[in-house]
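Action item from last week, closing it out:
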Amino acid sequence: MKCPKKNIDKCAKIVASMSKKILQFKKWLKITKKFIKKLLKIGRKKMAKILVTGAAGYIGSHLCLKLLKENFKIIGLDNFSTGFLEPVEILKNKFSNFEFINLDLADEEKLSEIFEKNEIKSVIHLAAKIDVAESVQKPSLYLKENYENSVKLINKAVEFGISKIISSSTAAVYGNPVYTPIDEKHPTNPLSPYGQTKLDFEKYLEKIKNLNYVIFRYFNVGGSDSNGLIGKSHLKSNDLIENIIKTILGQKPEFQIFGSDYQTKDGTSVRDLIHVEDVANAHFLALQEMEKHKLNTVYNLGSESGYTVLEILGQAEKIAGKNIPVKKQPRRDGDIAVSVATSQKAKNELNWEISPKNLEKIITTDLNWRKKHPLGYTK
């Protein structure tokens, strides 16, 4: 660039200005490159494969939906003993980052093949038998499904160098509450083979060296996807909300209340209910936290306050816009007056939160989904 002598000062200022802009551009470019690298790193982390067992089940399908929305690549496993094909097909059609394999966890050879062929970063283990009454009748089945198969899965994961494990457990490990709300330090005293097998597996996880694990103890989970994509299809269940929904839809003549003489504010038992999307979010938050440091701990997932059966019924009538026929029955053997968790630990350590208007959301999303799918999933 040539500058006439009389305009030297002016040219010098132009050059200085250009040099300043070039330096600013270089600085901006450097920052942009760092930012892009960071985004790519995050992207790679999010696209790491997560293995989810029980992916065709109620909680499993909703968890897969949450993680798929967060751009995780999911390999879902299920043997359809209690799960459904429909939610799997829905997720496969909507998300390219979802792969599903029909597999029984007892098949160690196939498990090895899956771990060998895939870069799996974490395992979320939800597959289990969960019927308390059935567990009393068939304890050997529950030992095999909930403990022995779970041990095979985790041993195989460890064999292939996977250390991050999230496992679903249950409030049933506590048995009858000694105090409420129940925290994670509450004594464990399972009253059924179901609760015992889940507790035994918890203890097995604790013994494995160099593991980074989280155990979630669920209380009562309800609700369906807020957008109605997938839902709860527990038609054979004795679940409280399920029986209310059936009565609203005319699939049952009346809703039965077992026990109205408990020492509670209205005489009916108190139950802890939490939305399935909140449960799914807890798993997502745990995955994020496990990237930062080892957790190796147990978290309760519950509403903390609980609701009486009459409160749940009243909310359901308000949402449905009609009275629900009720028949009061005597207490059932083994029923507990109050079962409520404190989830303060999950709130403090995972920054987990319960949905506002939790009970209303549970009933509304379940009812909306069931109105469109009165028979639940058909396959």
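Closing note: Residues 40-46 have pLDDT under 50 and may be disordered.
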